[in-house]
Amino acid sequence: MSVRWTVFKERWLSVVLRSAWAEARFATFNGETEAAVKILEDTLDRIEQESEMVRLLITNCKMNNIITKEVIQEQLESLQRCQSLEEVHRLYELGRYQAVADLLIQTFRKPAAKGRRVQPKANIPERHAQLVLLQESLWNLKDFRGCLYWGEASLNEALHEYLSSTTALMKQDWSNTIVIILSDVHRCIKQEASLLGSLDTVKLARLAHNIIKLINIQMEVSDSCTDMPIPTVLPWNILYYVLKHEEDKIHSLAACKKVEGTAGGDCASLSGTMPSSLMLLFTAHEYLGRRSWCTSSEGVLLFLCVDVMTGEIKKMSSHPFYEDVIMGLEQCFYCLYGHPTRRGKVKHLQEHNATPVSLTWERSPVVFNFFKPAVLPEFDSLKTSTVSSELEVLLKRIVAQVPTEYDPSKLADAVVAYIEGTSDTLPDPPESVDPIVAILYYLLGDYYFKNKEFVKAIRFYTLDVAVNPSRKDSWAGLALSRSSQLEQRINSCEPKNEGTILRRGMSSLRCFKQALDIDPANASLWIEYGSATYMLLSHISRQLKRSKQLGLSEETIASHETKKIEYLSLAKKCYECANQCEADGIGNNEMWLNHYLLGKITHKMKEPPAVYLNHLYLSLQYLHRMNAKYPRKILYHSPPYLSIESLELYYKIHALCFNS
Fold it and tell me: For the chain, which residues make up each domain, given as ranges?
């Protein structure tokens, strides 16, 4: 062009600028960003050399038809930003998150020119991808304040683009982008709830307005629609946090006014009403439940409901909406985990047909603490005090989630070895026991014991004593379960292995001893201990009487004789200790039984008749004090109160007198 100056003369600058502008536009359209930038930089230098302001109008163009220093500068900056944006993915993959954030934040402050959108060959991330990269970069930088700030701006832009989209594919892309942005905003707020205070009033209001728009979009679809238009329930969660933030501000202001002595009656008058934020959670569950969406997004809404409601019931047991919160929690657990499995037992539960989520160990504490018995059942408490069959199913699901470090199964073999007498020491319990594990296995053991499933009861009681070796009720349950199994085995008509019976009997007695070492003043345990001992004693006596028929060796007979003497002494001690507990006023009014069995035991020990007859006479007296009945005729299926016991004592006294 310089050699043609003599030809164009005063029109030379106009021709040069037009030519450079056309060349730059052509390079831009072909995606040759570097070439376009170089041309525009040279053109800008040429204009700056001119003393007068340059302004050209290209009459045969409808767009980009004005050439000025400002227009060229704007186009150059736009191309430079586009050139930088091409590096965004590479920078992100290299972990240079700050550089990525700096580049993408500029796109909010200085939006690119429309010409950038018609660069088919440019390798520039699409806008929704840019918004996602910005959020991820700020999160990786742990800039939670910035993540929330730009997340709100990104959500505003993404929602606008979603509403403006004209094709299903574009709507789908922006819908996915909104879900990701909401997820980032949500986790920022969860990370630090006070971050909402960093947004100014305008931005916070815009955030709430956009969230409500999203909820409207979801709720306005037809009833026949099964898929959410924007597949997330996070708008409800975020709206809850915004409402809670505003409520906290109101309470804080009210507290300040109260300190200053000004009127605070408005706040006080609301103390008995349900907070708006909590009411929102009930509304969210109700509306989403109608469409079976309440457990969408992996149950994140219901998890928030559970966390908030459990926090509320800990501090407001006297409030008028306490029962509402309890029922709300039960509905949440029913939708999340399908508990209880039989909905008819809890009439207020609604069937939302939502897909349940898996119960994890992290979420187990809140479920367990809500459903566990207020008072732990004892080994001799009524069956109604134990857990229900519904809760048993839930407890087994929790057992399946116990982490390896808390699982007591690795100690079970050592506990069994101690119970069976092959080891003299109990294994040391874990240094730290999870609060759930501390009672989880005991509740299951108690349930199976009181439902006469002794094999399962023994298993769970064993696991419990592995972590709670000082729990009397577990040792008592183990002893009674083992003695019940032994009794069933002795009374059965099947062939018996005598060695197995004696080993099981000794294991049961060892558990009784362990329980009574913990609680030596428990009359019920002493009686059960004595009964188990007497049962073994009776079995050994029968074996000795049939020694010839059974072909017992001399060694076995001698061992049985020794065991018989040992068990007689032990049984006598048990009932004497039970009598002592009764005398101290801590028994269960079973003196008649204690003396009756002491009479039988002392007779077997060949003590003087005055001793065992005195025990039987005392037993008869105690029965009389308990208003025993003495009918002329006893109906077997419906005997009068203590009539059979009285008859047996009457017979026993006379029979022993005749034999003395």
Answer: 1-124
